[in-house]
Design brief:
Order of helices and strands: EEHEEEEE
Radius of gyration: 15 Å
Largest sheet: 5 strands, mixed
Helix content: under 10%
Structural class: mainly beta
Oligomer: single chain
Number of strands: 7
Distance between the termini: 42 Å
Strand content: 25-35%
Number of domains: 1
Number of helices: 1
Length: 107
């Protein structure tokens, strides 16, 4: 759901950008956060919790709970509710611990 014509703010967020989530091509409004763009495309599950393997997603929407972690352009554990969407961004759900030693890059 997106408000297209607000009585006070008028028309904002009208320019579209494209991005990828788990290699699926999606569109968003320029100026939205990554979390908002995912939610607007019907995506509620951003990853799984590391201990109980339960779904994680947008919870507090202000960067405090760390429930909305995603991987953006190869950078693990980015807080999606505080990161603005950009053209051709490659976003992946966060289903594991971050790769802190660069082990994926060694192969």
């Amino acid at each position: 759901m997106h408000i297209t014509n607000h009585p006070i703010l008028k028309e904002k967020l009208t320019e579209e950008v494209s991005f990828y989530f788990n290699n699926n091509y999606l569109k968003a409004k320029k100026g939205q956060t990554v979390a908002t763009a995912l939610m607007a495309n019907g995506i509620r599950k951003f990853g799984v919790s590391r201990k109980l393997l339960q779904a994680r997603g947008l919870y507090c929407a202000n960067g405090r709970c760390m429930s909305c972690f995603v991987t953006i352009n190869g950078l693990d554990h980015v807080v999606s509710c505080q990161t603005l969407i950009e053209e051709d961004m490659h976003i992946f759900s966060n289903d594991s611990d971050p790769d802190i030693r660069g082990e994926r890059n060694e192969s």
